[in-house]
Amino acid sequence: MKTTEPALAEGTALEARPSARGNVVVQAVKGRPSALVGLVIVAFFVFVAVFGSVLAPYSATQQTGPVYAPPSTEHWLGTDDSGVDVLSELMVGGRTSMIVGFAAAFVAMIVGGGIGLIAGYAGGKTDGALMRVTDYFLVIPDLVLMIVIVTVFGPSRLLVILVIGLLLWTATARIVRSQVKSIRERVYVRRARSLGASHRRIVFQHVLPQVAPLLIATTVLAIAYAIFDESALAFLGVGVPGVSWGNMLEHAFERTAMTQGAWWAFVPPGLAIGLAVIGCYLMGQAIEDALNPRLRVAHLSIKSWRFRGGSAAPVAPEGSAQEPRP
Amino acid sequence: MHRTEYVLKRIAFALMTVFVAITINFLLFHALPGSAVTSALRSPHASPELRATLTHEFGLDKSLFQQYVLYLNQLFFHANMGVSFVDSVPVTATLRTALGNTIPLVFVGTFVAIVVGIVTGLLSAWRRSGVVDKVSTNSAIVFYALPTQFIGMMLILLFGAYLPTSQMRNEVENFFSDQSAWSNLVDIGRHMVLPALCLALTLFGEYTLVVRSSMLETLGEDYVLTARAKGLPQRRIVVAHALRNAMLPIATLVALSLGYIVAGAILVEIVFTWPGIGRAVYSAVLDRDYPMLQGAFLILTLSVVFFNFVADLLYFKLDPRIAQ
After folding, report:
1. CB-CB under 8 Å, B168 with A259
2. Interface contact B260-A147, CB threshold 8 A
3. From CA A99, how far away is CA A157, in angstroms rounded?
4. pTM exceeding 0.90
């Protein structure tokens, strides 16, 4: 994270540019806490995911108390519908959310980054064909397709990761593509080309390093969406089997914890998911803000990302993108 | 001239998408291993005769292409999506009723979200970094980050005492029964309060953020500076000059998101046992009712395609430059 620190500071200063009347330094300091908060949240959850099962006070699957016991000194967050300690479940279940979130985002990064890179760099017909495919993927209501696929094949962790990742890459692809298109025309890339550099060399030496930070920003945002989608799948009973935040919510709902007043059975996992999403969101925003001013892809998370698993898709409509489609 | 060309292009794209969606839908349920019938046939008690009969009945002895043609034929000329595995009722009939229940919920929820989103977004952009801005931006992010089902469960926890009892017991009440039109409407409205509120809460954050950023953009434009230099009152500048131009992305976003909201209402409908299309998806998943799942997926995709198309037209209407 040492490497991103100065970038964040610089970026938040630039982010404030639209109003650029106040002191730039003040703006930078003002804008910085949110990035730090995001980083701390994500780091905390990663820590829990790694060491949660060791640190958990009780078993996350065995009954260790009465059913729906309220929080006490013995069970800090009470027990769930089958007498399992909620805190332990929360600590162990975080691993599922984190693994699915990171792995699915990684899949989306590879696929979306690859397609965006190829489309943007090759241009012409390849670009047209790839973007057409992307357009189709954008129109599919992804949460529903995820549900359909997981239902047909039966839920497993690998399948959930693949399905989420393979339906999450479109935004990355579009953003990377428009980036690559502009980088490709920069003077140093043209010069490298005229000096006889191979495509491979240009892509890996000149283009990729320029796109990489943006790719990381979109990937961090993708983690948030993946965590969200995983919990939605779990709520329909087709999520990753085992202990997870999504399954905790589902169990609490199925056994009507709400009407029994057993709020401790679903508030902790719900807030945990929310916090993890906010953490990724803040971090992604900060990286993006830090990198984008020069590149003019402002607020990509608002214009080109689906908000909420499948519920809305503020994709920049055709023509409003930075560059016209061929 | 450009206009016709643009509209035709969008229509062609929409039709192509529908076709692709139907094909994906077909392949997903027919061609892949673990498809509907193979898993139905996996029952250990199925005799070879039964298998043969079922295979024949489901048309699995025909080639994949023949099945595809049959599927298209039934879909287009008979509006037939098959019958439910569970109750043998045609899927189309069930889904039509379900869609009729989903649409009012989605429109009410979205409408509330838009109003709240525009007001809070406008106020935050107007007084940037002020108290209102901080409160509304932060709550927008928080509500955006919380899972839909969790917001719904919190609403039930907080307001459960005021809920119609059917929703408390977590079962579907047949509230479209024989009643006078008025009391029927009141009944629906009473049931709709919490689900619509839940939907609005999950959506407004996004609208707030978009309205805010798009207002900030227009507030920085030269024509706003000109308006200010002319000495126009602040309110007029914000509403007539900045908001008017900021409406472009907002309107498109709303139209675009409507299609996805229909699909995204799944979680809301499950939490509040709203007998809509999301609930149909849910019970289809529980019962492994593949024809129902397939039909619901197709309808949800079509709704997205349709609203995408509307968004395209709207965008063109608002900003004819995009067709160049």
Report:
1. yes
2. no
3. 9
4. no
Helix H, strand E, coil C: the string for A88-127 is HHHHHHHHHHHHHHHHHHHHHHHHHHHHHHHHHHHCHHHH
> How far is Cα A214 from Cα A220, in angstroms, rounded to an integer?
10
B41-96 pLDDT, tens digit each: 556 666 677 767 767 766 667 777 777 887 787 777 777 777 777 777 788 888 88
Task: Give the ipTM.
Answer: 0.81
pLDDT of the residue at A281: 84
Decide: residue B56, CB within 10 A, 0-12 exposed, 13-18 middle, 19+ buried: exposed
A107-155 pLDDT per residue, tens: 999 999 999 999 999 888 999 899 888 888 877 788 888 888 888 788 8
- Does A148 contact B at CB distance below 8 Å? yes
As beta bridge partners, residue A82 has none
Q: Report residue A219 as tokens.
A: 């990937």
Q: Are A270 and B153 in contact (CB under 8 A)?
A: yes
Q: Is B257 on the interface with A (CB under 8 A)?
A: yes
Q: Output helix, strand, coil percentages for chain A, rounded to the nearest 5.
A: 70, 0, 30
State the SS3 of A281-322: HHHHHHHHHHHCCCCCCCCHHHHCCCECCCCECCCCCCCCCC
**CA distances from residue A231 to A67, A114, A201, A309 in whole angstroms, order as listed:** 23, 27, 41, 10
- 3-state secondary structure at position A238: coil
Q: Are A233 and A220 in contact (CB under 8 A)?
A: no
Which chain B residue lies closest to A135 (C-alpha atoms)? B17
- Spatial distance between the Cα atoms of B324 and B318, rounded to a whole number of angstroms: 13
- Distance, CA of B186 to CA of A41 (rounded, Å): 45
Rounded to 5°, the CA angle B102-B103-B107 comes to: 120
Q: Copy the structure tokens of residue B91.
A: 């899927």
Alpha-carbon distance of B295 to B259, in angstroms, equals: 16
